[in-house]
Design brief:
four-stranded antiparallel β-sheet, six-stranded mixed β-sheet, mainly beta, single chain, 0% helix, 113 residues
Length: 113
């Protein structure tokens, strides 16, 4: 069974940091480009960042470039998103997604003072 389980969300003040993790199982994680998506309240799903299968290439949405870092540990089948300088607009449910758009359960990030 394919599983993608995001974790690490929580409440953080503007300017703060969080690290999200996504534990993957049931498929060839190291062979797959992985992506973080997010959905803010009342808004559409938004692409955040992607990373190639071996981590050599990374791509970021303009809204998070310079603040977020995507990474992966293929030995642990885990995807990460390090989020710094968080803004109110970063409040959303964050999902990890496989290259065929399969998404797992998300984790809620709330940026609030």
């Amino acid at each position: 069974e394919v599983q993608l389980q995001a974790s690490g969300g929580g409440l953080v003040q503007p300017g703060g940091s969080l690290r999200l993790s996504c534990a993957a199982s049931g498929f060839g994680f190291r062979d797959t480009t992985m992506t973080w998506m997010r959905q803010a309240p009342g808004k559409e799903l938004e692409w955040v960042a992607s990373i190639s299968n071996l981590g050599r290439s990374k791509w970021y949405a303009d809204s998070v470039k310079g603040r977020f870092t995507i990474s992966r540990d293929n030995a642990e089948n885990t995807l990460y998103l390090d989020m710094n300088s968080l803004k109110l607009d970063d409040t959303a449910v964050y999902y990890c997604q496989r290259d065929d758009n399969l998404r797992g359960q998300g984790t809620l990030v709330t940026v609030s003072s």
